[in-house]
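[09:14] KT: can someone run the structure on this one? pasting the chain below
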Amino acid sequence: MDASPSIGPDLRSTYHVVILIPVWNDWKSAQLLIRQLSEQCASPLLRIDILLVDDGSREGIPPELARCTWYDNGGLRILRLRRNLGHQTAIAIGLSHIEQHFECDSVLIMDGDGEDSPADALRLIEAIQQQGEPRIVFAERTYRSEGLLFRAGYVTYRMVHRILTGRRIRFGNFSIIPREFLSSLVVVPELWVHYAAAVLKSRLPFDAIPTRRARRLAGNSKMNLTSLTLHAIRAFSVCSDIVGARVLLFSLVCLAGCAGMIGMVGAIRLATDWALPGWSSTIGGLLVLLTLQLVGLAAQFALFVAGAASSMQVLPSRDSAAFIKSVTLCNGNGFGPLELPSATVSDFDEAKA
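[09:31] RB: done, structure tokens below
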């Protein structure tokens, strides 16, 4: 693990960060990660509250995590969802909960498996503190620890995303958000589908710092080529209007090209004796068939984009509460229930007193 950067005097007194960590059946890694965060973030200038979003886990929460007598940097809260909704939706619900029930300076999102290093989490906190203007700061990956096939698929995803959306994407969930941006972000419907793409869609200012992806703390990764493909599809769906417009324009260009080629075939057939018997009709038929397919594709995308724009969308700030089963506090003596919606960050101090 990289050496921990120091919390220098540029960090003002008691900077308060809430760390949002989605978890699905990966409690051992999450427990090890919280221990590392407790060690690396031990500073009188920094307060860290942790919100674990239990995304419908089938495995029980370890008793040691419930007691968490070893975590004294702030509070530890577990938000349980009624069912498994997926990594990205769990993040959206967690952000909405924080926006409604926490007073803090910023929110840091990281995975619970340890691949997002606590040392880099401190670098993100330092980066957001050193900004002149508020910006979301992402951890930009300069190296990934997955296998060759997965990395090749990820590079392909980035290339296709750039072609279809015109936007460069080299980061994921690992990031830190200024508190004042939360109220804008949680009313972006696309946040329910894909966090990073929703930030791009929201047009909130952002920056990135280079990081290296660490290795898991325990267990095996659940991310594979199929998961990456589904993740990419979700990212493309967030930008469906841009993707649809680009596909439509490309189809029209191809349509014009096909029409020109049909005209050339007709001119060759009528004005010259170059064509062999049956040649012009075969080529012309294929071009007409291709033209009809392009027209159908363009029409399909146009209708898809129009339908998506007019359909009812989920608003994280409005709809998240329906998916929350319970919120519990790990206070050193096990679990302590919290009532919603009146629970605020001050409950941590009361429970730990």
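[09:33] KT: thanks! Residues 240-271 form the longest helix (32 residues).
[09:34] RB: yep, looked fine to me
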